[in-house]
Amino acid sequence: MTRALLALVPVLAALSVAGPARAHPHVWVTAKAEIVYAEDKVSAVRHVWTFDPGYSAYVTTGLGTNGDGKPTSAELRELAKVNAESLVEFDYFTVLKVNGTKQGFEPPREYDLTFENGQVTLVVVLPVKEAPRGRTVSLEVYDPSFYVSFALAQGDDAVRLAGAPKGCAATVSRPKTVEGTQQKLSESFFEALTAASNYGANFANRAIVACP
After folding, report:
1. What DSSP element (H or E) covers 192?
2. Which residues of 68-87 are buried (b: 16+ CB within 10 A; e: fewer)?
């Protein structure tokens, strides 16, 4: 398993043995999203995910011309490609619904990875498969296993609309703090969860778009 794939796989074991045992989550992501419209339909979702400094340092260890942890442009391109392609296994950590019906995604058509101020940021665009026109659109971002904790960035630009019909507006809701979860639930609790448990949905970030 390559370092690139490790950057997003929730079942990552390396972090569990790299230091003291910690309850979930193990990775923190500050997220922004853009819901892209074309001809009154949702055509794509553009994600911008910035990983926490500790994890960013882990995945860039040994990279760079001198192994100094400062990845080169070529290394970043390769990391971006493998990460974007690996997301399909986890449904892109994204649930998009139009008029209450869940939508599917085509393979990512655009992706990029940057490393600035000690943090890795992944940008990926998910094209929507034949989404119908709809007055109501919902977007959720979360990891069902809660290995990765997603938190929408603060500010009005956390979820933006691009090319949306006139009058459409997005309402954002953020999950409750996860600090108490780390103290109340042990790692064994999460190890016992099955793929269908969907525990991470309790900490989903949500945006509801309503159009006239």
Report:
1. none
2. ebebeeebbebbbebbbebb
pLDDT tens, residue by residue, 59-101: 888 888 777 778 888 988 888 888 888 888 889 999 999 999 9
| 106 phi, psi to nearest 5 deg | -80, 165
Q: At a CB cut-off of 8 Å and minimum separation 6, what does 14 contact?
A: 6, 58
Contact between 86 and 7 under an 8 Å Cβ cutoff? The reply is no
Cβ neighbours of residue 197 closer than 8 Å, sequence gap 6 or more: 144
For tokens 């290995």, the residue is 147
pTM above 0.85, yes or no: no
- Whether the Cβ atoms of residue 115 and residue 76 lie closer than 8 Å to each other: yes
